[in-house]
């Protein structure tokens, strides 16, 4: 099977191809850029303009043009043998695209190991004035990696342009907590980012767009995004707790001396914070309930549980940075779990909207729960987990934290009846020093 050489197929990656805001559907290159082909794409049915590499980089930016520039493959060089079994191109928007996590994730997405080897993707990367140059560097690295499935890369700093038509939005970018910044200030600053991104997604994303919020505090950011995107399905919003699940599986495997793949039915309840609840009551090792294998309930409650919840902080003390590679891996795991049928008796963790949940959790939160999927991108909450008294009390604690966070950002949630910040304690988020 003939591979398409990226060096000939990928044109103009670093060229600032700006388009007018009024021209959403097509590309309107600057006068200095010459369009030399317009070709029907058999896979997507869409039309693509291919920019001439004769374009100049230093041409003046015309007033009124916005900062989206595009790197497109040249379909003149397609190999029908390679592409005929491919699905329709999926548009994946990623924010914080020049950050640490994205630096790992984007390459996994482009390689096909996340969405499948027959799933071409278009990456729509959101940066900012801060990261403009860095983002072009990211695009150059993607170009140099010769991924046939990567059909197009778009870079921009305006969410309304970058989210256009997105099938998935991976919302990773968020302001990190600086020295002396209180948790409620972080909630407010990041909440504003997610309110704006929610509105942008509502206006321009695919009507079935799915969102995964990674930027912290991710549960409440997801709630804010969801509340500001009334036209998108609420169940399509996720907050990432898969890293916590993976950390819990790792600790149970280490303790039991079993390979980590034998740890199943592991869920994280609640908030992606130090109040999260790694559920050893329902988890299994080799098909048996964890307490029947580990036989040390004190260790499970007093060592395992806080160790998982504080893993991010422990890692930053060692490494000086928050987890990036393992977070990217967990994002890939999260996505794969939605596109692979969940084996019977197993589950995966994701923060989802609680409306109608079977566990009596407040119905207007993004709360991590045990879920399963038929492999169609959707999920259902598993309703038969055993909730003992210990689990019930811990779930209540993390729920109360999320209720307080929701009150704190009431001013960012349209229709909220309460907007008062009662957060006095300063709980760390995983990954914070
Ligand atoms: P980085 O600091 O490497 O990148 C974060 C990106 O956020 C930056 O590149 C920046 O991009 C963007 N950003 C958006 N708004 C701001 C702002 N106001 N000030 C500064 N930067 C901003 O972080 P990571 O990639 O390591 O982590 C990203 C997020 O993921 C963090 O919030 C982190 O806490 C969270 N996280 C979540 C985990 C989870 O399990 N849910 C696990 C690990 C991390 P630009 O300049 O382009 O806007």
Automatic annotation (TrEMBL):
It is found in: Plastid, Chloroplast. PANTHER family: MALATE DEHYDROGENASE (PTHR23382). Keywords: Chloroplast, Disulfide bond, NADP, Oxidoreductase, Plastid, Transit peptide. Residues 241-409 form the Lactate/malate dehydrogenase C-terminal domain. This is malate dehydrogenase (NADP(+)). It catalyses: (S)-malate + NADP(+) = oxaloacetate + NADPH + H(+). Belongs to the LDH/MDH superfamily. MDH type 2 family. Its EC number is 1.1.1.82. Transmembrane segments: none annotated. Pfam families: Ldh_1_C, Ldh_1_N. One of its GO terms (molecular function) is L-malate dehydrogenase (NADP+) activity.
